[in-house]
Amino acid sequence: MKKSQLTIGMVLIVSLILLTGYGQDLINREKFYETIEHTDLSLENVKRISLDTAEETVLTNLKAPFEVNEIPETHTKYLVYDDVEFGIKDKKVFRYFFRGDYRTAKGIRAGDEAEKVIDAYGPNYYERTDTGTDIIGYFDKQHNINIEFSFIDKKLIGTIIQKY
Questions:
Q1: Which residues are within 8 A (CB) of 111 and not within 5 positions of it... i.e. 6 or more apart?
Q2: For the chain, how far is it from start to end, CA to CA, in angstroms?
Q3: Span 110-146, pLDDT tens digits
């Protein structure tokens, strides 16, 4: 019981950080877009759900989420599951965040170090700091995808994949 409460609490904290910082985050990422070369991110998914997957497919495959957070100002909602959260807009996944044992298409997961991310995804990345975390990010300019890896004490704590 305590583990699930802790997990839900951690997901809520990370969600609030992501939600409150999204507008500023977008501005911060835009300054890197022109100078960073393309990296193919088209195979990224979590639990076979990728960007643009229909909300109904998420609900069918993963069942009911722990929580649903609706953000009326942005016409979005977030489906919160154990260690993964899907952002929904216009009934499609536009971003998702995960941590724990989930892996990226290139095998990166929580606990990995930045060097492993760079070895897997290549040298075309940007670095920034946001809300106390160090971030490494990549852009897929052909598919309008952005992936960001968040680190605390040089260990990966979470990954965000989103439409750009």
A1: 155, 156
A2: 37
A3: 999 999 999 999 999 999 998 889 999 999 999 999 9
Residue with tokens 């951690």: 10
What sign has the CA pseudo-torsion 14, 15, 16, 18? positive
Cα–Cα dist 34/90, whole Å: 28
pLDDT digits (tens, 9 = 90+) for 22-66: 444 555 667 788 889 999 999 999 999 999 999 999 999 999 999
3-state secondary structure of 144: coil
pTM of the model: 0.82
Token digits for 160?
């965000």
Question: What letter represents residue 83's amino acid?
Answer: D
Order of all β-strands in the sheet with 92-98: 67-71, 76-81, 84-89, 92-98, 155-163, 145-152, 133-140, 126-130
